[in-house]
Amino acid sequence: MLIGIPMEVKPQEFRVALTPAGTDALVRAGHQVVLQSSAGLGSGFTDEEYIDAGARICDDPEEIFRIADMIVKVKEPQEEEYALLRPGQTLFTYLHLAPNRALTRAMLERRVTGIAYETVQLADGSLPLLAPMSEVAGRMSIQVGARLLEQTAGGRGVLLGGVPGVESAHVAVIGGGTVGTNAVKMAVGLGAQVTVVDVSIERLTYLDDLFQGRVITLASNPYNIARATQWADLVVGAVLIPGGAIAPRLITEEMVRQMRPGSVIIDVAVDQGGIVETIDHTTTHQDPTYVKHGVIHYAVSNMPGAVPRTSTFALTNATLPYIRAIADHGPEEAMRLDPALRKGLNTYMGKLTLPSVGEIQGLPSTPSEALF
Questions:
Q1: Over 70: is that where the pLDDT of 287 sits?
Q2: E strands within the chain?
Q3: Which sequence spans correspond to the domains of the chain?
Q4: 192: helix, coil or strand?
Q5: pLDDT tens readout for residues 99-112
Q6: Which residues are catalytic?
Q7: Which has the least CB within 10 A, 79, 86, 309, 338?
Q8: Measuring CA to CA, how many Å separate 290 from each of 128, 177, 282, 283, 308?
Q9: What is the DSSP string of 259-328?
Q10: 41-46 mean pLDDT
Q11: What is the pTM for the complete model shown?
């Protein structure tokens, strides 16, 4: 199979979909890899490294989309890329279709086989291709939040871990999954006072055991979320609904009004619609924040793109076995063989295969199980 790796065009996105080592593995398996020139530079990989691994370098992204059987990306196609997609082509990337009607329609009109990293799901419910970037984003949320709390960034002037004799900052993490757990790890490690809210008592029990009582755990309901956020210096939104659905709006505008001036909200779930009512648009690494009701809002939809070398290694470690399976067997047979990969299918031959997205966007859907 001919696998195309274009350069990411989303603003401030420096990741690349495949490392030189991943390229080497695919070439050794008998496949061809065509990479856009300089696509790896943001992650610290030169064209020469890819050439040494057996890739062909191409300057023209249109040529890559034209000849590739499968396009492998990091982020969803941007509007200028829609016209490059072609019928029968496989696209393997993060898609996040639920809040993006224009992309959904472009994928359907162009009859693309769209397999989304974030909806590949194992039998135990885990999301193996979302997990590595969730780990990065969860850890980054505390790193970014600590910086935004500095007065020079507009924050309250609070040191996350405090110092002896001075109270440390309060951090509220809404959601105790992969993002939330990694956010809690970082916040506890820096010495903050941490409250985590989750809908699952079983998950809260796990977190209580993991952190040996050093975090406050609260069952998720509007009353507890309001309590957790009201006095928080930093709030991290870390809720994901499996299956590609839009995240629920758990933090209301009234809750944000009750927060103290200079406090910070970081909504990691923003690429799936977000859980904060006062976040009505995504931001970029170049212009990452805005202030509403005196609270700093951070709504960057590709947080891991700021640490591209770490992120690219972590992502390729997870995606490469699936890329290899699709290349070895073709997308249809690969999905027949692997139910987890089949759950990743979002669009196929003009059909939408995610009922959750169909409900949100008012489109008919055909579950992937009915196709393979």
A1: yes
A2: 2-5, 32-36, 56-58, 70-72, 90-93, 113-116, 170-174, 193-198, 215-219, 234-237, 264-267, 289-292, 295-298, 345-348, 351-352
A3: 2-120+308-370, 131-306
A4: coil
A5: 899 999 999 999 99
A6: 96, 271
A7: 79
A8: 32, 27, 10, 9, 24
A9: SPTT-EEEEGGGGGT-SBTT--S-B-SSS-EEEETTEEEE-BTTGGGGSHHHHHHHHHHHHHHHHHHHHH
A10: 98
A11: 0.89
β-strand partners of 266: 236, 298
Residue bearing tokens 């992309």: 103
Please name the amino acid found at residue 246: I
Assigned fold of 131-306? Rossmann fold (3.40.50)
- Look up residue 154 and give its two tokens: 């507009």
Distances (CA, A) of 367 to 334, 352, 355: 17, 8, 7
Examine domains 2-120+308-370 and 131-306 and report if their fold is the same.
Answer: yes
Give the CATH number of domain 2-120+308-370.
Answer: 3.40.50.720
Q: CA geometry: angle at 269 spanning 178 and 241, to 5°?
A: 70
Count of CA atoms in the C-beta half-sphere (13 A) of 66? 5
Residue 265 CB partners (closer than 8 Å, separation 6+): 234, 235, 237, 251, 256, 259, 276, 278, 279, 295, 296, 297, 298
